[in-house]
Design a protein that fits this description.
Elements (H helix, E strand, L loop, with lengths): L1 H14 L14 H5 L13
């Protein structure tokens, strides 16, 4: 269930047409989860 919610949140900028790739949205944690690299802000992984 958590993965489903996280995917939904990460896809919002793409659905809105702001970016073409999930990890390209500057304020998203998608980069941390899908690329295993650090994004703009530190995150605490929930799973």
């Amino acid at each position: 269930m958590m993965q489903q919610k996280l995917d939904y949140i990460h896809q919002n900028p793409m659905r809105a047409g702001i970016v073409f790739e999930l990890e390209h949205y500057k304020y998203s944690s998608a980069f941390d989860y899908y690329e295993d690299k650090e994004g703009l802000l530190p995150i605490e992984r929930m799973f």
